[in-house]
Design the sequence.
């Protein structure tokens, strides 16, 4: 339930990004830059929260981060000044990795104890929540103001999340559970990245389409295909559906072919499928809206399907390779990916500003295809019951 609620809450803003951009009165490049600045909060969160969780336990981290997250989210519809918006996205950027570190630490410990591939499946639960919030946005955009939608949703999700944390309290990792594990200092955090450097780079490549979709899917449909505010949510909806399909299926798929096989297959399917369809949709937009829009929806579906299980598999791979605790591994991955990912998102934003959203989306397409060169990541053996 925590993963489902997390998906509902953190993904409520992207489907209504055209309205947020309009409120700020900025262009695509500036808006993309403002959104990308949330990485500042992500970086500091990944530097500190793993150590804080070691001292205070998972419960305190979850409560504090979820409260900051939804308080900041609720302010977004009321902001019309870019610099105030930056403060809000930095607060969100700090809180959601904190929450994610706590959740992933809990799951990775359980996964290591049971030798069961849990993380991709629970990421699928997150995608169910994200899909739910996208469907809600599709139904509400033409009927409810941005402020009413986001404020009410943030309050409800926060309340149910706090209740769920309370119910899970008996099994959440406490500070005493981590007492025997050494506290990893910032210097050691960076030094330990050498063990998982290939995984870090691969994870960055793997999530490039996912992060770009969060930033640009709705705007791409609205501006490039000329869909209405309501219809422009459908490609994003398609992306989330395919993410769920991939994430809840991967634990079965690895019983037929290895993790290594599915990583390369996903790269090819997601990269080529997404890139070709987005380009073709733009070409057809001046000839047939129905054809262009259908192909746009298909492109985001294939992009989501190809990248759906990557994060879970690479987090698991990093945990196998590292000598650090699961929480610190999650912090390492988050720190590296958010730092380098900020540069990628910024570059995408200004390619969009100077050319078009379609051309800008070719950067994550190319990055995804680079995963084809990684032939040694993931378990090479088929999983047996």
Sequence:
């Amino acid at each position: 339930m925590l993963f489902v609620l997390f998906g509902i809450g953190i993904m409520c803003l992207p489907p209504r990004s055209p309205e947020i951009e309009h409120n700020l009165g900025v262009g695509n490049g500036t808006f993309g830059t403002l959104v990308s600045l949330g990485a500042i909060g992500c970086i500091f969160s990944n530097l500190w929260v793993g150590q804080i969780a070691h001292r205070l336990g998972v419960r305190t981290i979850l409560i504090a981060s979820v409260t900051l997250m939804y308080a900041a989210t609720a302010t977004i519809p009321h902001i019309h000044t870019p610099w105030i918006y930056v403060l809000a996205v930095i607060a969100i950027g700090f809180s959601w990795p904190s929450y994610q570190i706590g959740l992933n630490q809990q799951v990775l410990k359980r996964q290591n104890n049971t030798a069961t591939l849990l993380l991709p499946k629970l990421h699928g639960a997150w995608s169910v929540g994200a899909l739910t919030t996208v469907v809600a946005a599709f139904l509400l955009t033409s009927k409810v103001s941005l402020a009413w939608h986001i404020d009410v949703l943030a309050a409800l999700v926060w309340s149910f999340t706090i209740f769920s944390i309370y119910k899970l309290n008996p099994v959440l990792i406490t500070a005493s559970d981590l007492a025997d594990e050494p506290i990893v200092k910032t210097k050691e955090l960076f030094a330990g990245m050498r063990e998982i450097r290939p995984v870090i780079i691969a994870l960055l490549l793997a999530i490039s389409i996912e992060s770009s979709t969060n930033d640009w899917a709705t705007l791409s449909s609205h501006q490039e295909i000329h869909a209405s505010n309501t219809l422009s949510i459908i490609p994003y909806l398609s992306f989330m559906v395919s993410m769920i399909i991939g994430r809840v299926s991967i634990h079965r798929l690895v019983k037929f072919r290895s993790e290594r096989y599915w990583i390369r297959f996903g790269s090819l399917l997601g990269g080529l499928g997404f890139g070709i369809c987005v380009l073709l949709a733009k070409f057809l937009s001046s000839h047939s809206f129905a054809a262009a829009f259908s192909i746009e929806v298909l492109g985001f579906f294939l992009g989501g399907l190809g990248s759906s299980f990557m994060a879970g598999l690479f987090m698991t791979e990093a945990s196998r390779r590292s000598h650090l605790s699961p929480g610190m591994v999650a912090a390492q991955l988050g720190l590296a990916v958010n730092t380098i990912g900020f540069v990628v998102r910024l570059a995408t934003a200004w390619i969009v500003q100077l050319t078009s959203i379609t051309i800008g989306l070719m950067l994550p397409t190319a990055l995804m295809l680079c995963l084809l060169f990684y032939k040694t990541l993931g378990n090479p053996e088929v999983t047996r019951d």
The chain has a mean pLDDT of 85. The CA atoms of residues 44 and 372 lie 32 Å apart. The chain is about 75% helix and 0% strand. The radius of gyration is 20 Å.
